[in-house]
Amino acid sequence: MSLRIGLLGGGQLGQMFLQNAFSYPFQIHILDNDTNAPCAKVTPFFQQGDIRNFQDVYNFGKKMDILSIEIENVSIEALKALENEGKKVFPEPRVLELIADKCLQKQFFKENHLPTADFIVVENHQDLHKHVDFLPAFQKLARGGYDGRGVQALESKADLHKAFTQKSLLEKKVSVQKEISVIVARNQSGIAVYESVEMVFDKKLNLVDYLLAPARISKQKAKEAQDLAQKVIEKLQMTGILAVEMFLDENDNLLINELAPRPHNSGHHTIEAAFCSQYDQHLRAIAGLPLGNPQLHTKAGMLNILGEKGYEGEAIYEGLSDILAVPKVYLHLYNKTFTKAGRKMGHLTIIGESFEEIEQKIASLKQKCKVKGSIFSSE
Fold first, then answer.
1. What is the pTM of this model?
2. 378 pLDDT above the threshold of 90
């Protein structure tokens, strides 16, 4: 089976997708505007082009048998045109269009009776002032937010001066016990659901610091989370892999936060800890192959490697020898040439017999592993 599969986006998710795809008899072509993108360094089938530009995506897609993404910010109109001409596009453009807009996402949850926090859609800054009584809440830009950007807390009327002026979502603030994520995949052969993972956030950067898998929740809640993720992908009628991020609130209720229709940061541990990784699963799903076994065969943790605060420029890695000396730790660097504070530069997977062992190693690894830049700023 010789397939030409086109992937829009050449970042670290694409790199890890490629590393898995090399085991298959497929040609994986990458489109990205950055000639220094991680994927550009690991495949001969890299093409420079703007994934948000209709013509670039259309011209690229015409040569492919299947098209997929590693980031949502793409030309959906071009993907629609290609799908109308008979190209296989997974996830489907209608799904991308829905998920790309957080307001549409929330309305989809409500219409399909999927549990989520209360919300209000606001069109502009003036509209926001009408809903002061709804605060405290999180304001999320309808479009364009990513990795903690485009989200901010509004506690009271006094915070409205810093509010986004574009169309956005006001999501009621809830008391959260844990933030969890479930990865689920679907194609015509069936559905595969991974065990939930527990995400621990860096509150300053508003992105995942580390995760633990499986999540430390009851068996009943774990099954409920998996069932909820399966219900979401069935309602979407989506092909490919989907990350369903959820809150477990103070009353033990599961509330869906957001969706990501692609491999996700919360699934990196599956490379070492599951029988079938999220990247292998995504490839199987879009290529129409039988889905793999999503079961974990060990407890695992994943620690994001972020650029050190105060540094930017060409990346300098410190502590790699110390990291590699630790048993059952696996290093993944993303081939990014330049670093800056909070940028995802890689991750570490840690497997172990207990969460205590894994968290002890995570605490130690944080001290050993540093990514600094060639320029220091005392910001």
1. 0.94
2. no
